[in-house]
Amino acid sequence: MRLLLEAGADPNGAKTERGAIPLMRAVTEPDEAMVRMLLSHGADANAAYFHGWTSLFDAANYGLLYIMHLLLEAGADPNAVNSRNGETSLHILLRSRHSGRLDIVRLLLKAGADPNVAETQTGETPLM
After folding, report:
1. DSSP β-ladder status, 53-54 and 48-49
2. Does residue 30 carry a pLDDT above 90?
3. Positions of the ANK repeats (predicted)?
């Protein structure tokens, strides 16, 4: 990966049929070194694929605090919403098996996550 990126490979150019870029794969592996490398070479921390799902959504779903830090530092939007039902990363975290991770909730809130965003299908906010 390093050789390809140093040779000028576009970290946002290669996409799966659903639109996922390599950063998304690195997040779900999870591979912190690869996430760092891709972000340092210009990977888009806000790129979205199927139904508007972002890397921050994946990191929240898997409870990956250290990767969420990297994504937020790279400009990931804590208030991005998916197109399926308007969920944010805070909604996704609180519905996951990592819902008790107060450290991640604090990180998202500190990054500006809005706790009052209601999803579009049910109208539920993260508090609900």
Report:
1. antiparallel
2. yes
3. 18-50, 51-83, 85-120
